[in-house]
Amino acid sequence: LDGVRYGVWTHFRPDGQKTASGRYMEGHRHGRWQEWQEDGRVARGVYHRGHRRGVWIVRDGLLGHKRAVGTYRRGVRHGVWRYFHANGEESHVVSFHRGQRQRRAVAEAM
């Protein structure tokens, strides 16, 4: 309506590959979204009035292995983010505060 996006949308790259799918409300991404990255990874989470919010999970698009899990607050990374190797083992943990990286701790090998 009047150039403002509403409802379910799916976005594509020029080559036809999906980049994102979800709902718009009053022109803003809102609710559950799924985003496909060029490297094949798939991010899933929630937008609130155009800003990422809450827990987001990034998975390997081909095999579905979890690659990262963390939270967003007001559209930026906030809190602990955990990253994983392709085999599912945790590789490292990073803490963010209002989008700024705070520290990095490498997980010990078992």
Plain-language structure description:
By secondary structure, the protein is mainly beta. 0% of the residues lie in helices and 64% in strands. It has strands at residues 7-12, 18-25, 28-36, 42-48, 51-59, 66-73, 76-77, 79-84, 90-97, 100-106. Strands 1, 2, 3, 4, 5, 6, 7, 8, 9 and 10 form a 10-stranded antiparallel sheet that branches. Strand 9 (90-97) and strand 10 (100-106) form a beta hairpin.
List the helices and strands and how they pair.
Layout: E1 7-12, E2 18-25, E3 28-36, E4 42-48, E5 51-59, E6 66-73, E7 76-77, E8 79-84, E9 90-97, E10 100-106
Antiparallel strand pairs: 1-2, 2-3, 3-4, 4-5, 5-6, 6-7, 6-8, 8-9, 9-10
